[in-house]
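tool=predict chain=A
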Amino acid sequence: MNRDSSVARFWVLGAALLIGSGIGSASGQEPKKAPDPAAAPAPLVPPRQGTSETITLFDGKDLDGWEGHGSYWSVRDGVIVGKNNEPVKVSTYLLTRAKYSDFRLTAKVKLVESEMHSGIAFWGRVAPEQGDPYTYAGHLVMFPSNWGMHDLYGRRALPVDPAPAKKVGKQHDWNDLEILAQGNRVRVAVNGSPVIDWRDPLPDRIHEGPIGLQLHSNKDPQEVHFKDLVLTTFPPDQDPFPSKPRPGR
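tool=predict ok
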């Protein structure tokens, strides 16, 4: 090998070492990580179009139109009751047989026993591969111990501020809960006060799915109540939020 070839190889090797260490970069800094798509500004997905229909999901008498573990779910005095005495290893849900995409849901919800939160799930699917035939993978609006939102079997806690709901929510009493889900936007009101307004930056994670009432995994006895569940499909985008209470409520 001649002297010129040796010198050339020396400089190539030296340049590679400098670039690999970051010293040879223009800024002297480590290369930037690829941007996180979940941290990017959320796109504005418009409300979906469809027939607007108001549906009473629970008539106060039976669980017709729902499915879940009969050992956990029952009707008592016009109320859906979720209750366990033995440990629940995987969060389980009472699920509507029908699926929904854009909707307005109003309900009264109450945590009776335990300090574990419950919630209402939507925009997802039943996920029996997680260890329970009625568990859910999707979006969850939580109440009342941990007001906020969760991506079940996905991103976990979603970046919404629980403080506004904590100010107006009640721990062991009835709460009026309203969820307005349109496009990729979720709005939530508690006891007539708007508390969440959030757009999902990953709209591909939104799917038409059942509504699910949560009985959270817990080693302790717990009891949660739901009543007055009324859902409107494809609500008009210009409707006020929160909605005005219906006559007789």
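The first strand starts at residue 54 and ends at 56. DSSP finds two helices and 15 strands in the chain.
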